[in-house]
Amino acid sequence: MIKPICYITILLLLLVELALAQPNLVANGSFEILSECPVGADIEKSVGWFSPSEGTPDLFNACADLSTNLSVPMNSFGFQQAHTGNGYAGFVIYGQGTDYREYLATKLTSTLEAGHIYEISFYINLPEQSPIASNNLGFGFLADSAHFNTAGLLQILNADQSATTVMDSINWIKLSFIYKADGFENCLVIGNFKSDSETANIVFENNGSDQYYFIDDISIIEILSEVENIFTPNGDGTNDIAFHYGEVTFLSVEVFNRWGNTVNSIDVSKGWDGNDVEGRPLIDGVYFYQIKLYNKEIIKTGLINLIR
């Protein structure tokens, strides 16, 4: 079962820290490591990837013979270079009234940790010969590898999906999600978990028959685990800055005093030096913080002790 993706206020004293430069938990996210070149619906030839259903996603690579229609950049769906490297995958996410689906799945390098926050992202492209663009492309998790004897919808509860309908046949478009883990997630599944009747679509005039998307560079990166609960901004070069998260553009931090007044809004690319919004040093004490996503949803709260 997938825990609903929600960003709740945690009214506890948390020991939290943003983890920078975390590894991608998807081992072969760009489909570059192959057991052999594809000749058919051969997603399993991309090491670690498989179809969790009776649907038949495809693997495309520059090593494939042109006669297979699975080469890169030219194949049966048109012309498209890989986002990175020499390969990508492709699949149907809208069955044109049949609810036919194709899904991609892979085991993660490690199970997600309960309560930790992850960014799940991938790049998609609408092939030139896809007659339809659709939304609801998203992800879900299983506790382990599994196979379902259906070519239709997978009933993975509380999967998340994007409302974006990607119509770009030239550029790769990034879809990104923020996910709070329950702690069981060890197998990633990508596809459309909504019915055709719930999926928006835009029809194009071309010679294609199957609705289709290319996908590349799939990643799961931990972005928030634990934050310091004490820092000492006294200029000695040790533990002088709090909430310093580098070039993270989707987080912001608000700091409040004991009376609930905002004392600073933190630029996480620089961090907090213990001063208020006017640059004046704050007194020693315990301050309350909220870490928010770009959409203002609160994903972490807690207390931090300022000691000079």
Structure overview:
By secondary structure, this protein is mainly beta. It folds into 2 domains: 19-223, Galactose-binding domain-like (Jelly Rolls), CATH 2.60.120; 226-306, Sandwich (Immunoglobulin-like). It is 0% helix and 33% strand. It has strands at 16-17, 49-50, 58-61, 74-75, 78-79, 87-91, 104-107, 117-125, 132-134, 137-142, 160-161, 173-180, 187-192, 201-203, 213-224, 226-227, 230-231, 251-256, 262-266, 285-293, 298-306. The strands form 6 sheets. Strands 2-7-13-10-11 form a 5-stranded antiparallel β-sheet, with no helix packed on it. A 5-stranded antiparallel β-sheet has the order 3-6-15-8-12, with no helix packed on it. The model is unreliable at 1-20 (pLDDT under 50).
| Number of spatially distinct domains | 2
What class would the helix/strand composition place it in? mainly beta
**Basic shape:** elongated
What CATH architecture of the largest domain do you see? Sandwich
Distance between the termini: 46 Å
CATH fold title of the largest domain: Jelly Rolls
How much strand?
Answer: 25-35%
Strand order of the largest sheet: 2-7-13-10-11
